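Re: export button greyed out
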Amino acid sequence: MSIHRLHKRAAQALRPVSFELDWLRYAEGSVLVTQGETKVMCAVSIEDDVPGFLKDKGQGWLTAEYGMLPQATHTRTKRESQSIKPSGRTQEIQRLIGRSLRAVTDLHALGSRTVRIDCDVLQADGGTRCASITGAWLALSLAMSRLCQQGELTANPLRDHVAAVSVGIVEGAPLLDLDYSEDSNCETDMNVVMTGSGGFVEIQGTAEGAAFSRQELDTLLALAQQGITQLMDAQKRVLAKQ
Amino acid sequence: MSIHRLHKRAAQALRPVSFELDWLRYAEGSVLVTQGETKVMCAVSIEDDVPGFLKDKGQGWLTAEYGMLPQATHTRTKRESQSIKPSGRTQEIQRLIGRSLRAVTDLHALGSRTVRIDCDVLQADGGTRCASITGAWLALSLAMSRLCQQGELTANPLRDHVAAVSVGIVEGAPLLDLDYSEDSNCETDMNVVMTGSGGFVEIQGTAEGAAFSRQELDTLLALAQQGITQLMDAQKRVLAKQ
Amino acid sequence: MSIHRLHKRAAQALRPVSFELDWLRYAEGSVLVTQGETKVMCAVSIEDDVPGFLKDKGQGWLTAEYGMLPQATHTRTKRESQSIKPSGRTQEIQRLIGRSLRAVTDLHALGSRTVRIDCDVLQADGGTRCASITGAWLALSLAMSRLCQQGELTANPLRDHVAAVSVGIVEGAPLLDLDYSEDSNCETDMNVVMTGSGGFVEIQGTAEGAAFSRQELDTLLALAQQGITQLMDAQKRVLAKQ
Amino acid sequence: MSIHRLHKRAAQALRPVSFELDWLRYAEGSVLVTQGETKVMCAVSIEDDVPGFLKDKGQGWLTAEYGMLPQATHTRTKRESQSIKPSGRTQEIQRLIGRSLRAVTDLHALGSRTVRIDCDVLQADGGTRCASITGAWLALSLAMSRLCQQGELTANPLRDHVAAVSVGIVEGAPLLDLDYSEDSNCETDMNVVMTGSGGFVEIQGTAEGAAFSRQELDTLLALAQQGITQLMDAQKRVLAKQ
Amino acid sequence: MSIHRLHKRAAQALRPVSFELDWLRYAEGSVLVTQGETKVMCAVSIEDDVPGFLKDKGQGWLTAEYGMLPQATHTRTKRESQSIKPSGRTQEIQRLIGRSLRAVTDLHALGSRTVRIDCDVLQADGGTRCASITGAWLALSLAMSRLCQQGELTANPLRDHVAAVSVGIVEGAPLLDLDYSEDSNCETDMNVVMTGSGGFVEIQGTAEGAAFSRQELDTLLALAQQGITQLMDAQKRVLAKQ
Amino acid sequence: MSIHRLHKRAAQALRPVSFELDWLRYAEGSVLVTQGETKVMCAVSIEDDVPGFLKDKGQGWLTAEYGMLPQATHTRTKRESQSIKPSGRTQEIQRLIGRSLRAVTDLHALGSRTVRIDCDVLQADGGTRCASITGAWLALSLAMSRLCQQGELTANPLRDHVAAVSVGIVEGAPLLDLDYSEDSNCETDMNVVMTGSGGFVEIQGTAEGAAFSRQELDTLLALAQQGITQLMDAQKRVLAKQ
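Workaround output, generated via the alternate export path:
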């Protein structure tokens, strides 16, 4: 249990987190999330249209895309635009982001609109999918408030906070908010997405090596819950400062 | 809590499960899994080679592919071979199957070989990814035993059982082994993969509508554990009969 | 002329053929064809719509797709879903199946419907395209009868039987219904598709090595005609048993 | 039986055929075939290498590609380069051309070389695949002679002539060498490829509407044989003039 | 300045240029351009429709495609239809051809029509993109005149000539109309497109090795202007002869 | 000639330009370029390998890629990773960036290394390809200096500055450094790339509407030269501050 983390970080401590709101000029809402060395740009655009399967259903849609700049990683990653398809990993992540945000969005209150959230990783040091969710919520919140202020929406479709964090077991020790080197060496890796009211939206736990026990699961879930509470406090603080 | 399931099935009951071993002539091991109306063909082939990233590492590899026949579903599904890429869902599932089986396989004991497991859904009535994992384990077990009998392997690389089941909350009731209509209407959906020694390999829980509470999570995990125990008993019975 | 075939089969004998009707639950009609070690699943679905080029023409359409499970073959075949396009061979075969069935279907009597026939090879030991045609006819027959019974069609669009068989010259000997090892070694390979009234729908003869003479052609055509007559008898018997 | 053909052509007459040899400057051999209004450019290139599956087998390979310029057809055709794959039709035709030429080529005498034959249709008025085969033979003949003259080959790998023609039944009348309007309206369509010694390399007969009888088949084969003899005479004449 | 060009061509001389009008039967206008050993087929088709972005805008559209036959080049080029996408070079060229022709076409006078110009290189010896533009103008001119004669257009949308030529600096000497071997060795390469009234439509100058000076630029532009004037004279002569 | 530009900018004035060096942690050199509202991230990575066509040639290679984040533009742009190919525009731009930087890089001095420059547009308000070139030069300069300091290179392969700017004619007025709204409305658009010693690397001038005269060309080139001089001064200043 005496694992040494970078910068003497405690096992149950988050990395420093900051949010720069409206970093982009043309998006309806945007946030540059920094969590340790991980940097993700989250941006929201809104279209006055819905996909075919929702035509005339009286509701909107919300979808997410995830990308990584080639030079975001320790070793340059091949640009996906030059292969035929987004990798399985990319698709998994963007589906996860979309589901997480839809879980706290009232699609009927959104009306016949499509919200597109782009999460682009400028620098990757672990936890990019979780930082994307936490940041995407902020960008969505900015965009929804604007639609309300402009009188385009009568009620804010965003019903609750959402944030996410990774937890894992590294050399037998349960750790909060893994960085890349920890993530590469963990025995168990878990991403947890929760709402402001304390419900789970998504739990994805994977044993990379040995299977994990029920007791380890309980420890990891408690750690995640604590980290997510802190992340939501940070979301509230930055919105309050506006 | 008084939900009515098809064929008067109890909330905590599995659907009838059966395995037909060596259904295919040319695979190293194959199983036709039937779980209720879901039918999946699992087949194992072995190549005397490893992918590039494992060359000269003294270990083997195991990978899985998942497919669905166009007419397996209530409404015919477009054949993936005619689109450009496997869908995100297909990729997610085949990565899950591969990770689950690798969790109980000693890749060093396998030597410089690649195991390919194909899980093809002939008929789909919910739970196809879990049935794929449970069946793939049996097909892998048949193939590994054969390699040992033929003297190609000195130790069986398969270290433990693996099986999987879906659980979920439908109209407030926790249910084991969802069929398609239950899966389409559930509030929370969870796939659980466990080893014979009771460890978790993978937990994927998703709130489709409202978030789920910690207590609901505990109930679902207990239900999954009970179902997986029964599935492993069935795996053992069919192997014993050989 | 003293070639030795597997199981002491005579040069002019078909392999054992059987049909399991309605093997799939959700298709409008389905048949599992077994011809020797070759197993093909044929399934029919019907959509209440026609492709763009037939809009408002007062007729329907019938099309076929053909696939092969990766583990169907002696050595595992790469899954087509992961390459960019169906191979030329796959496209040739599915066009052939479609043409053959359209030759005995009254597309006007079908109304504004599209019939999709999927032929998926579960196990391949030669003659898969011919078994697909013979089986597809049965699956189509089941589906068309059902539409008539349900009062959706007033006249059955299926005007005649269709069946197909391969013939070839192996080591100088003309053989009926080649299996995989015969097919791999034949000098001439011919697929013949005929109707119940004795007309030819398709003849595809290819010299793999030396060109074939007019006399050899005549012998092969007679052999094919005899085999097709037997296959149609089998089609009739299995339908009569229903 | 009194069908009227364009330019008062007789039912059993070919369209005017001409060959311009070495029309292209950089190919090893090239021919511009004109058959009625159909114009095909056939060109041969030779590489001092063989595909992977023939490495160290002591033989060469011959393969063909087929294309159609967008403005070759009555109505402009979409350029294939901008879709993802060659159509099924294109693949069928280029496989046919390749098989036909390989049937008269001694691949061992060719040595470790790959012959690539490109058949590009500049103008299409029916019979393009047959004209491609007839012209490709000439281009191949020019290229092989050159290799012999240059002392690179000791024996000419080309063992015999190959030519091809289409025949069909239009309004009940058997016709030789269909043009586009005849081909669009025929009941039965047959492409026949033969060698100089009178053997069949390929027969592809398709009933577009009603099935065809054995007697019709015999008539069509005789017609094809007569046309192919004339085409080979033309091949010989143009080579003799060189 | 004493560079030796093929056939004793002067530094400021064009290669011999000729145009065969209406070489293709089904296109609305077509020209086979020969410039030295470079041969390009330019063909125009017209559709009575416009792309989506121009619907109901009361104007037409003009677009171009460019291709190269595999055997057009010194060493055979891979057919683009078998790769996934047109190369960057192909796309650059077809965008250039389209822009150049649109610069002299009144799209409003064209009405709701789409002009498609295909430029297919049959033989490539340098300058194919410029020959494509010069020839495309002639093919377009033929097609537009026909539409006027048929009374479909009241005013000819073609307002001026367009022609193009390459210039470059090879071993320090400024040359007009580079052939392939000159183009491969030039220090600076420039394509210039001009109108009949002497305006520039496009200048694309690239230093392949050392950067070029302002004085070199002036020399090259003068050379290009002189060559383009000659090409337009040739365009006028061949139209006058009709 | 009295055109009104945003923020009262003069016709011959650049937008405010700034460079943030080493904005990314893992790249060998990186620069965030801001030019008005346009923001481009330029990053350099270096591999100890060369592409196949340069193996054993004793020289290195330099290549560039260009991308645009979906939310960089006024209206969200579809992510290229989800289409099959980079658009023609993207390919044109990345080829231009690569050529421009290669023009001032001694590839032999680079040794057997490949330099990859990624230019990713975070926000687009016109001039993104020119800002990419100007910024890429700085990122390359940082990376090359580091290789020299680390003793991996004995001589700096970077021989000169490179910078680029757009010029154009809007409502008859020649303007320097067009923003998006000016670029959308210009009659002539020209991108100019120059070296520190005053040579031209690339001139791409396009008449969007009417052709442009020789005199207009001269005016635009002078304007570009002045702007590029200022950009190089800025490059020098920011490097000097390090």
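Chain B has four helices and nine strands. The button fix ships in the next patch.
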